[in-house]
Amino acid sequence: MHKKTMEDYVPNVSKASGPGVDFSYVGIDAILEQMRRKAMKQGFELNIMVVGQSGLGKSTLMNTLFKSKVSRKSVQATAQEKIPKTIEIKSISHDIEEKGVRMKLTVIDTPGFGDQINNENCWRPIMKFINDQYEAYLQEEININRKKRIPDSRVHCCIYFIPPTGHCLRPLDVEFMRRLSKVVNIVPVIAKADTLTLEERDFFKKKIREELRANGIDVYPQKEFDEDAEDRMINEKIREMIPFAVVGSDQEYQVNGRRLLGRKTKWGTIEVENIAHCEFAYLRDLLIRTHMQNIKDITSSIHYEMYRVRRLNENNTVVAHANGMPEHHLESEEKFDSSCAASRF
Amino acid sequence: MEPTETDGGIMEQPKNLEGYVGFANLPNQIYRKSVKRGFEFTLMVVGESGLGKSTLINSLFLTDLYSPEYPGPSHRVEKTVTVEQSKVLVKEGGVQLLLTIVDTPGFGDTIDNSNCWQPIIDYIDNKFEGYLNAESRVNRRLMPDSRVQCCLYFITPSGHGLKPLDVEFMKRLHEKVNIIPLIAKADTMTPEECQLFKKQIMRGIQEHKIRIYQFPETDDEEEMKMVKRIKDRLPLAVIGSNTIIEVNGKRVRGRQYPWGVADVENGEHCDFTILRNMLIRTHMQDLKDVTNNVHYENYRSRKLAAVTYNGVDNNKSKGQLTKSPLAQMEEERRDHVSKMKKMEQEMEQVFEMKVKEKLQKLRDSEAELQRRQEQMKKNLEAQHRELEDRRRQHEEEKERWEAQQRILDQQKLDNSRTLEKNKKKKIF
Asked: 3-state class of A58 per DSSP?
């Protein structure tokens, strides 16, 4: 009897007062239906970045999350997987549709991260990319003739893959997450979690949470952005489970008469969507079913705003000295310099 | 049986014995002696932290080398690569084995891993040098052998082939120690992924011309079959575990997952049994021999020739590891001899030069002495003459004095005579 309304997409909506008595019903809640129709027409955009060493199953996980071949490897047929000498940033866009809702999904891959012998500053290209996306959006925004709908290429969410050593975070992981948690929402996951037994997994997670806390790294969902008590409760539950131990697979096997996504080994079959086996289902729910809009909101209202404030302050001081009057239009060189300064923490 | 000709030109004909002599007992004597003496084996494990090295060591030797009280190096965070060794004495069936495990915590763990292999190379060279010194001593009775005989290199199961760090490390160490590459945490991969990964690794190893430990060829059919089976499954994909789990009433060592139990000792699940058999039951002695005859000899000839090589050995004519060690050694000996000759010549030259110098010096000092002697002679003569002069003077003076005295005497006499005369006169 519960109609599919915007409530499923936007969690923080107060319900209408009771089953409406006709004479006191104004019809304000009909706005939800209007919003829904509009959103369906416009479609959604989601930009996810995957970061991690090669061989941790990033592409497979992306394919599993969106149940289609969206990863870079599926699109570009590479004969031999060579580790690139420097970090490259490759972004692939797909238009996917489900029940009339269209989504433009962009997966941003970072091959070469953490694979070299010397990994100093391997986070720089990634930070530069994220800031460049913010910059592009800013430029569109401060244009005099703005487009009706600014194409949103900002990175909404960065999934960081932690190798399943079972002991603790590596210095590279800590460095990267520390720097990037300030500019983008980071969701850490334990990759290839079928390596760990349940006790090892719990121990590892505890260790990781301790280290994140000790280093002051705030991953999504961030504590400081909890809006009210209800939010906090939900997010606390999620925070107790991070990082999610995931297993990815795009092959189907027959288990108990059903066809399921999984991995078949000699000692058993791992079911990807089985909560007892791995926490992929929780990750998917977080990213897509419950918190997708929240992630986008935090990106645009907090991370982007921080960047914008910083840039415009720099801008004002620079240009005020030069011209004596506030101007918004900048040369491309200055743009690059400022974005570099912004990315230098 | 064909008669064979040896170097001395003596025809050796393996003779059939007509009775029981008893030297077939020699292996037993060696056996008994070895058992009494005990065996030593040094094993090095290298790999990033969290790959299950400590667990594998515990599983291999069924001892708790690393236990909760003395945790393995992975549990401690290291900032730089250190090399640690732990010794354990294991006994089985009356045979005792002094096992030294060399661990390398911190390898590949930092952000910048350039030269993280340097401490390991230094350690191995150090051990070779120690053995070389012990060999060259006068009293060689107790020679502890702490050279690294085998290095297990753990490869991360990424599924994508060798990492740059793996390649660099193996390229630098394949000339110094027997490297056996292993795929760690093999329960990460399905059998198909595992096959693919193994092929990629072997291809990478061949591409970069890395010489991992080769199993020796034998004449025995059975052994050849076993060796071939091992070769097909290189690099070995292992799982380690020391926890015992019940499966269908049987107690096995394995890892318990919600979807099943991975049995460590099951040949279909992983290659752990193959590794254990190869390392301990069949090829331990061969590993020690190859270390002694090939790696150690390389080090030794390099050291004694006293020619500086840089990190990469440019004497590639060493050829295969176990193809013909004798021919290799002959060549090295010839090199060595020629180098010695050169050194001898140099030394002779230096010697001649020194002799010439010495002679020159002697001649100089002789001339000097000659001169001084002349000088002193002259002085002496001068003094002589002076003295002669003085004596003549003295003589002259004496004469004069005497003459004077005589005159005085004469005068006195005259005076006394006149006095007498006067006296006489006076008296009248």
From this structure: helix
